[in-house]
Design brief:
Mean pLDDT: 89
Shape: elongated
Number of helices: 7
Helix content: 10-25%
Bound molecules: 2-acetamido-2-deoxy-beta-D-glucopyranose
Radius of gyration: 33 Å
Strand order of the largest sheet: 1-2-3-4-5-6-7-8-9-10-11-13-15-16
Largest sheet: 14 strands, mixed
Distance between the termini: 142 Å
Order of helices and strands: HHEEEEEEEHEEEHEEEEHEHEEEH
Number of strands: 18
Length: 431
């Protein structure tokens, strides 16, 4: 009760005396990378109700996680200096951007709200916008999103909206479609329910797109990928085969994520033309064959052009790896081979010599033979990695027996020849 009276009193006070954002929120003057004030109202509930005034030199306004259900009053969103506006993680059902006047705005985060529509015209005043995050809202095929006026947009995030069907038919790059500018550098369409994409879908941005996130969809093909990509995430799609041709053109690619696919095999040369620094192949539960030639044959003899810093094969179905890979694997700074059904026999003894980070060894364990089941590979000694002893000894014995036999045969032959050779001579001499 007392709190309520206090609150009402405050409201009356605020209605008569104007209040500054910095009286309520956390304000910080910064000079890097821009000079100005960062106004942080994150986790401040009901701050807009007080109709606070933005400081003149505001560059960032953070209103995230503030339980906002509407943007009222809009007079707050008038600023000649604001560059970044964060409205993520609220409960906004609609937003009238038309009434905003933020000509310098470069970054707008509206993710994790409940938006269903945004009027295409409402972006008209945002010609400088470079980054737009609309992830995890309630956009659907009826939303008809269009970004034609965002001519300087570099990055868009549309994750976790049910718009896949629409992206398939209304192109992201067509003016009648989503109207993204053709010099856009980064697109994220993870978890949007894409079932099928035209193989040539990304052709309009073939030379410009640097980053593509298309994970968590239902794609069973790898579309033709823009050749300037530096970052690609195609994880969690029902892809059952990766061919050399699909990745070959991506010579600028640095980071590749192919987690949670349906592939059974990584075949030779798949990564041969790439110069990756980061490769994730996690939770490919069916993956049981990783070719020692996946990075190509040449790298195995000259590792100079092998730049991989992080490689994860965690959570797959690998039971063995060829030792020829060791020249590459020793160069990887963070190698994760955990949660695979490793068969700890003589073929895998080399794994113990890899410089694996201490936090990546606990689940690096044997699955067989029975006596080593669930033992940590780095707790074992070289002698523990034995190959099937009976057949091994038999073949050892076979070889040595063969040698003895061969020697005996040779001896007999020499003896016989010397006898045969001398006898006729002796006979002759005797004649
Ligand atoms: C605002 O503060 C929260 C912590 O209270 C922090 O997580 C967030 O990064 C800050 N926002 C900005 C823009 O600095
Ligand atoms: C937002 O509302 C929830 C419950 O509805 C509450 O637990 C939370 O503290 C509120 N957040 C803020 C920043 O007030
Ligand atoms: C490798 O992984 C570490 C830790 O996850 C990360 O900090 C680093 O940036 C990664 N390196 C590359 C080249 O991606
Ligand atoms: C993993 O491989 C084994 C044989 O090596 C096979 O029996 C099993 O079905 C595979 N698991 C999956 C999920 O494909
Ligand atoms: C690759 O592995 C296979 C099977 O283990 C082996 O026969 C072959 O010699 C290896 N190739 C190279 C180049 O080491």
């Amino acid at each position: 009760m007392r709190a309520y009276i206090l609150f009402s009193a405050l409201m009356v006070y605020f209605q008569t005396e104007s209040v500054m954002f910095c009286d309520i929120c956390d304000c910080q003057e910064i000079s890097e990378p821009l000079t100005g004030v960062v106004v942080n109202c994150s986790f401040h509930e009901r701050v807009l109700e007080m109709n606070p005034i933005l400081p003149d030199a505001s560059i960032t306004l953070d209103l995230s996680k503030s339980n906002l259900t509407s943007i009222q009053p809009v007079s707050i969103f008038q600023s000649e200096s604001l560059v970044e506006l964060l409205l993520n993680r609220n409960f906004l059902k609609e937003i009238n951007l038309l009434s905003f006047n933020l000509p310098e705005l470069k970054q707008l985060d509206l993710s994790e709200n409940e938006l269903t529509h945004i009027n295409p015209d409402s972006f008209n005043g945002f010609t400088k916008l470079e980054y737009l995050n609309l992830a995890s809202n309630k956009f659907t095929v009826t939303s008809q999103l269009n970004f034609n006026s965002l001519v300087n947009l570099k990055e868009i995030i549309l994750d976790n909206n049910n718009i896949g069907d629409e992206i398939e038919t209304r192109s992201l790059f067509d003016e009648q479609g989503y109207g993204l500018p053709l010099n856009i550098q980064s697109i994220s369409i993870s978890g949007v329910n894409l079932d099928n994409l035209n193989l040539e879908y990304f052709k309009p941005v073939d030379n410009t797109l640097r980053k593509l996130v298309i994970s968590n969809n239902n794609l069973n093909i790898i579309v033709k990928l823009p050749q300037r990509l530096e970052y690609l995430d195609y994880s969690n799609n029902p892809i059952n085969k990766i061919t050399t041709e699909e990745l070959e053109p991506l010579v600028y690619l640095k980071e590749l994520k192919l987690n949670g696919l349906d592939v059974e095999e990584i075949s030779k040369n798949v990564f041969a033309t790439l110069m990756l620094t980061n490769l994730e192949l996690k939770y490919n539960k069916k993956l049981k064959e990783f070719s020692n030639l996946s990075f190509g044959r040449q790298l195995l003899s000259d590792t100079y052009d092998f730049y991989l810093e992080n490689l994860s094969l965690k959570g797959s179905n690998l039971s063995t790896l060829d030792e020829s890979l060791s020249v590459l694997f020793v160069k990887v700074k963070r190698l994760d081979l955990q949660q695979n059904p490793w068969v700890c026999d003589c073929r895998l003894a080399w794994l113990r010599k890899l410089p694996i980070a201490p936090d990546l060894i606990d689940n690096f364990r044997c699955s067989s033979p029975d006596n080593l089941f669930d033992r940590r590979i780095f707790d074992l000694a070289e002698e523990d990695f034995v190959c099937d002893t009976s057949s091994w000894e038999e073949s050892q014995f076979g070889i040595s027996a063969g040698h003895v036999l061969y020697l005996l045969l040779a001896l007999v032959t020499i003896l016989y020849l010397s006898l045969y050779n001398t006898t006729p001579k002796d006979n002759l001499r005797q004649k």
